[in-house]
Amino acid sequence: FSANNNVLCLNLGQDERCHGFVHVNPARALGARIEPVSSYGGNQYGVHLLIHKDRETGHWWLEYGDDLKPVGYWPESLFTGLKNPASLLNWGGHVLSPSSEKSPPMGSGHFPHEGFGKAAFVREVLIVDKGRHLVLPILENLDPMSSNYDCYRVDTLMYNGDGITFYYGGPGGCKG
């Protein structure tokens, strides 16, 4: 999140400029490597995440793992525009590098057309509706996009039995 539209806050330190995410579960370390790690052409592993708004407090909670235990929350006060239901949701990857350097790889570093076992993926995408139920997003309302198609791509979105799946990523290597 952005503390003041100038500072990008990643919740990984005690930076006084980045008061925000309230970490409530020391068993779930922020910024730690999530294991086991998938390998190119080898075993693939996933992580269950759920982000939802608490109706009573207005806080946005992050839950993690097969048991969806709370990690922490973003206080309602951080989000002036999220007092009402969200009108836009994003899933995928994000990379960052100084403008003087080439961009890093995203995901596995391979383009999504390589598919399962080789490209990064997001699967079982569901959204929470106004009735607090997990539902499938409407496929026609989803808009796959990449800020730099030469370096990063997103593959076709598809329904599977448990939600929407897509592959994304790329080798990076772009400047500025």
From TrEMBL:
Signal peptide: none annotated. It comes from the Eukaryota. It holds the Pfam family Neprosin. PROSITE patterns: NEPROSIN_PEP_CD. Residues 1-175 form the Neprosin PEP catalytic domain. This is Neprosin PEP catalytic domain-containing protein. It comes from Ananas comosus.
